[in-house]
Queue: 4 jobs
Job 1
Amino acid sequence: MLNPKIKVCSKTILLMTHTRLSSFYYFPLKSFVSKLLLVLCMLATGAVNAVTYEVTFNATWSAADLEDASDYPGSAHFSPLIGTTHVQAAEFWEEGGSASFGVKKVAEEGSNSELKSELLAAKNTGTTGDVIEFSSLFGLPNSDSLEIEVEASMPFITLITMIAPSPDWFVGVSGQSLMDQGVWVENLTIDLKAYDAGTEEGDQFSLDNSATPVPEVISKLFGTDSPFQGRPTLGTLTFTLKDPPPPPPPPSSGNAAWLPAIISDLL
């Protein structure tokens, strides 16, 4: 949704510059002067509050990651990666916590519908952004990318995908911030390690497993309960900031020292 402050800025500048409204909705501001005025107005009102990230899921899981390479399943793949951006207080999975029904269904079956309902319910409370969903990844190694919008009020991101086939194993990120001291991180790569959701028995790549009698907490997957060799990296998630916004002016320099960088970006 378009920021209302940007709407106000755009309408005001349209009147000031006599620019005609076009199919660009509130952004028919094509001249250099109009663009500069829009940027300055947005900065003055705090309207620059969302950015775009390209998210790349690079799945590298292979037979070399296992104690016995012959255990590598012929149907090895990752289920559709799912998640959302959110406020810091929102939590959907974490090591040491219990798996929700939605997380359980992703980890055991690669089914996203229940977790998607949980994410949408949280969105209705204003604590999360849009649901993020990738496609399944077969034919490993493989990768997929998509672009997401991240608001400054919700700079944390959580994602999860099933290691398939498996009892209840998954990889993902939980509550990862895309801001560092109020500044958007330009590039971030996270190694993906295996987790056990604690909801099903089994130590091999199989979907036919009995439920854990008393559900356990989410934990790192390694050792005798795992076919993996140690705790290998099964892939990476990379977050790349698209068109980074200009940095805020240093407190002591005033806005004048910052204008040349803005003007250079607009030329």
Job 2
Amino acid sequence: MEAEDLEGDSQEKLQNLLEPAFKEGYSLIYGTMHFYMVFKTIASIYERLRKAQQLITAKVDLDLSKSEIKEVIGAKTESEMATYRDEVIVERFKLFINALIGTLSQTPHKKLDPSNYEDIVRTLMGEQAYLLFVFDKLIMQVSQT
């Protein structure tokens, strides 16, 4: 009888341990350590790209809030301003991706210096750009392994 109680207790402990994994919003993935590392790296790259998008959007909103920029743009309605804002966000994100690719280029005449990359990222994203200064190194490490 004691063996059955111990077995029941271990089943209950196991069930309590796994309970959060079966609730809504949780996912349980089985795999090797290599699979985990690849998955974690992809998740890290995705999070940094998402952060870059957020920083670019915040910087564009800050830039467009200045009255002198509104005068230069000449947008009269809110819909024109929203359209212009969306176009600028897309263009700045493309510039960021091109700068990132430039740092990863193996061709000497196309390779972008890391300090130039940092300057471009700072210009595109503002004060919080330091969060993405080492993003090129993460991509380089992934491509080498």
Job 3
Amino acid sequence: MDIQLDGAARDWDTLHSSFLWNIPARYNIARACCGRWADDRSRFALYYEDEAGHTEAWSFWDVQQAANRLSNVLGAMGVMAVDSCDDFGLEMVELSPRTLDLMRQSFPAWLPPSNPLDIWPASYAKPFREIYIEALEAVMEDPKVDAAVTVHWLPALPRFEFFNTTEDLKEVAERHPDKPLAVFSYGAFQRQGMIQLESGGRVASYHSVDRCLRVLSAMWHYGQYTRAETAGAPQLPVRRDAARAIISMASKSGRPRLDAEGFDLLEAYGIKSPASRVAGSEDEAVAAAKTVGFPVALKVLSPQISHKSDIGGVRLRIGSADEVRQAYREIIAAVGNKAPGAVVEGVLVQRMGSGGQEVILGIKRDPQFGPVAVFGAGGLYAEVMKDVAFGICPLTRERALAMVKSTSIHRVLQGVRETPKDIEAIVDALLRLSQMAIDLPEIKEMDINPLLAMEKGCLAVDVRVVIGD
């Protein structure tokens, strides 16, 4: 398989697994090689969903045998890595002339540098750590290289401290965030060293070189899959500038959550909600109710209160001005009793929707998978029922529909014992949320619960938005 990347058409995909890197869809692999083999039985599994929505798992098992037979063979791992690259569809790329010229300055005349780099002979002329980092830095800077694999020896310390490159590796990886660095760690302090190496950095450490290559191969296949999966994601007409202005204003004020502004954010992306007004007193609440029309719901607005119903901060089906006043007083009292430290900014007076099925829609910025869309059964017991489906953004229309169909609530939406609901409107709302997640990375979480799915269209009744840097 020819996977050489055309530098003029380089297109980076994002793999959100345990690596947190921006990675290329295709790989050229350069390898800075030193050290010895160790026995290893390793497994790597990559889970994803194909176009039909079926869950797949790739499992790779390998047993490295007779480690002692390789322990004194310098450069043997590089030779074996070349063979493994062929097996996994990766290419051991020829290093650029600049990289080779730089390495010649440190390599002995009898060993011209090539890929993979065997740096042991050069370490006789320079301190090991110096030539190790010099070689790895040169490889990572090479424009023909998309990812690197190296060996990390963790001998007994402090006796062999001059071989400890843990912090050096983390610094090199930090300087090259666009290129994955996979490391084979072994030695007397393997476990401790791997934990230290992966702590707060951009390095992934494994028990064998073979496993490093298998993971990079899986990353490449995943990149191919996600490119095909998201190629048909639609670009819907939205008001991005208005949405960004809402986020910017909240960020400048130091507020981590949006309350009433969340509905304005949804409106900017074409997701409708019932008419509503913010009220800071009983009189304002009555006036707002008359404006939006009875019956109404009252919901407390407070930066410290996320689940309003849990503390008595919601009153529904209010049909008169007197009931509005009573509901306002009850909400203020309930908050004072159950959340005495909360700052109440007022209440949201919202016209009551009716005749719909409650579902939940949302987006979450996962630290591993990035922006993820959520759909499922909504209402007060959404977290208990856990009838939900997830999809990595951006969603295609087919993927959004598959998410809806994969849940139990889908049968209810189809019209079990009642009128069928507008599933296409739900799919459209999912696509708009997916686009919002891509357009507005400041949004860390958003829940629309409930979204009322009706015979025609849908309405976002409540929304919670968490923002951050």
Job 4
Amino acid sequence: MINNKIHLSGIWKWLLCGKSPQIILFHCLLAALVILISKWFYAFWIGILVFSYFNNKFKVQFFLTPFILANILSAEVFSRALKLNPIIPYEFGKYFLFVLFIYLITRTNIKGSLARYGLLILFLLLPSLFISLLSESDAILKELIFNGFGIVNLALGIIFFSQYKISLHNFKTLLRLIIISTLPFVIWSSFKTPDLSSIDFSLTSSASGIGGFSSNQISTLFGFVFSVCVFQIINKYYFFKNSLLSLSLAMLFLFKALISFSRGGVIVAFVALFLVFFVSRKKIKKSYFKNFLLLIPLLFTLFYFTNKLTDNSLLLRFQGETNSTLSGRSEKSLNSISTGRFDIMINDLNIWNDNLFFGTGIGQSPKLRVNYGEEFIISHLEFSRLLAENGIFGLFIIITLIIIIIRIINFRKNILNKSFAVFCFTISILTSFHASMRTSITPILFSFALMQIINERINTKIQKGYDNE
């Protein structure tokens, strides 16, 4: 679906077409209102964005979809940190994506094999859904939402974004909006953090240095936004006109991710950037490559001072050490390095082995862990959970996702398209290995990877005013 002209008005016209300094200042002021007066200002802002999105003609809503999702990436986690439930429910991201994609898909004539892959995934989820509904669980709805909505939204996102096209100019705007929308959160997190020198850092993830909320989710989000900042720099899209300021902003997000002591978001970001750099290496001129190399000592300097601030605990954390391994009570292993995730994965595979065909049903595997020598715990690895709870159909889902990734990367000949697809797929998949689908970053980024960045002359252009035709 391509519209020659999109006429925007109101808040979305300002966000996408307004001057960056004004938009940045507004988000900083929003953070100040949240900190100094009331957290409900943020809920009000998200309400305005959602209402303004739906208060448009359908072709405008279609066009705005990736931009509203850019805001949801940070709004989902920030609203949890602010404890805005029930006004903004804890699982707001899952609810919003599900409703939004269903609404868009039912109003769009979507064709093509990629969309059929999304439909196939939904079909493959049906057996485990029926098994879950037949169970005698007292919290079946909660289990379905928490464990099942992530992969459902990913499938719906594949269907919708399989034919979405975005111009280069609007793509740059999308990257900018991802960063800007996260500014209130990083400012709030910095303000809520006590004097770092007073924190007794240990060898576990810690919410003390990031405002007191889930270190895993914040590391995932801030690590991702850091990688978006660097992705811009690789492609010479600077957030600020001054490249030094752009680098400083990237370092701020990386510092907040590091100080969380949750390694997943940081490691995933660097793996994604390495692959992007590898894919883009022929595009980068030698002169620019030398300038980009200056980022490496800056990264080492940041890590050095952050590690020094934590009395060497940060380095030990990334080396996989724990209090037990340092004291000699236990030996370093894959399970200790992965903070228990390796044993959970093995446990999932054992459950799958005993429920090979249909699986246990969505959300039912944690209850069976006690039979395999484990405590009741929800999996942090989405793909092993798919096998345990969906059986052989979960394996087919994984194979389908692999086929999509291979097709998209092989099909994309343009370096920017290919590198962005690699970037999104890497963060989407690797995030699901340490945080499952606790947040919507996996379904959103997997969906974004399917977008085509095309020549601006034949793509949607933002126009002033509103289309009253």
